[in-house]
Amino acid sequence: MVPGDNGTVVKVPAAVRAALVVLLLLALLVAAAWLMQRRLVYFPDRSAPPPAAQVLAGAEDVSLRTADGLSLGAWLVRPPPGTTDRRIGVLVAPGNAGNRLARVPLATALAGRGLTVLLVDYRGYGGNPGSPTEAGLARDVDAARAYLAERTERLLYFGESLGAAVVTALATRHAPAGLILRSPFTDLPAAGQEHYPFLPVRLLARDRFPVRDAIARITAPTLVVYGTADSVVPPAQSRAVADNAAGPVRVVVVEGADHNDASLLNGRQLIDAVTELAGGDS
């Protein structure tokens, strides 16, 4: 009930009261999603990994300095003794969870093919300072690219899921010799809408990562790899990214693979395809 103009009490119909409650709850939900949305996007393991050499023989701890003054830890993994060094660097931009410790199998496999691998952790990940944002991650991989470019002759960018968006944007600023996109989404709001269908994700998104639009401006040879059973990024989105590439593109489909399966981390199909893009025998 609410007071009327003449001081009388007017009874509000139950249906109207229910509608007002629903609208209030929706408003609170949208406000919470706006304020906390990055917690729904980034899931960092903030713990610092052990020294690189304790995890992988010959690996080095390196420090990357970003344009906004952060010092980020990363690992450099060179080809092992007895393996021909191709003088090709692979910048690995990870997905939205964990830290570089989980990418050791990938680095091991790529280094075994003669590639020099830089395992990057974004700001807020793996003991690094700061908090992740789209603009911040761009600065992080800019620093990683500059570091690796001084130590190798050609660069490949390798991005996993969210990292695929990060390296696609990097490729629009600094052209690579090749681009590897593993399980890319078309843009972050499109991926988010799949998981939060009850929210106006496109209206709320502060970080957008427009992969499909950016890839249309990139002429570098591109490799797109995805699994047919991906429950995080719909396979149709990865195919759409490949279809919009401006340069030569190869698509590798891993049958039955879900987003975090080992076959999409360091599986033979993936590693062979990267080796081929690098210009070597598998």
Structure characterization notes:
The chain is an alpha/beta fold. The protein folds into two domains: 2-37, no CATH class; 45-278, Rossmann fold. 35% of the residues lie in helices and 20% in strands. It contains ten helices and twelve strands. It has helices at residues 14-36, 52-55, 104-111, 134-149, 162-173, 188-195, 201-204, 211-215, 235-243, 268-278, and strands at 2-3, 9-10, 43-44, 60-65, 71-77, 88-93, 97-98, 116-120, 154-160, 178-182, 222-227, 249-254. The longest helix has 23 residues, at 14-36. The model has no long low-confidence stretch (mean pLDDT 91).
Give the SSE layout.
Elements: E1 2-3, E2 9-10, H1 14-36, E3 43-44, H2 52-55, E4 60-65, E5 71-77, E6 88-93, E7 97-98, H3 104-111, E8 116-120, H4 134-149, E9 154-160, H5 162-173, E10 178-182, H6 188-195, H7 201-204, H8 211-215, E11 222-227, H9 235-243, E12 249-254, H10 268-278
Parallel strand pairs: 3-7, 6-8, 6-9, 9-10, 10-11, 11-12
Antiparallel strand pairs: 1-2, 4-5, 5-8
Helix pairs in contact: 4-5
Q: Keyphrases for this structure?
A:
282 residues; alpha/beta; Rossmann fold; 2 domains; eight-stranded mixed sheet; two-stranded antiparallel ribbon; 12 strands; 20% strand; globular
Determine the fraction of residues in helical runs and give it as a percent range: 25-40%
Strand order of the largest sheet: 4-5-8-6-9-10-11-12
- Give me the CATH architecture of the largest domain, please: 3-Layer(aba) Sandwich
User: Which structural class do the helices and strands define?
Assistant: alpha/beta
Radius of gyration: 22 Å
Q: pLDDT average, as an integer?
A: 91
Count every beta strand, where a strand is a DSSP E run of 2 or more residues: 12
Sheet having the most strands: 8 strands, mixed
The total count of helices amounts to: 10
Strand content: 15-25%
CATH superfamily of the largest domain: Alpha/Beta hydrolase fold, catalytic domain
Q: Which stretches of 5+ consecutive residues score pLDDT under 50? A: none
The string of secondary-structure elements, in order, is EEHEHEEEEHEHEHEHHHEHEH
Keywords: Membrane, Transmembrane, Transmembrane helix
InterPro entries: AB_hydrolase_fold, Hydrolase_4
Protein name: Serine aminopeptidase S33 domain-containing protein
Pfam families: Hydrolase_4 (PF12146)
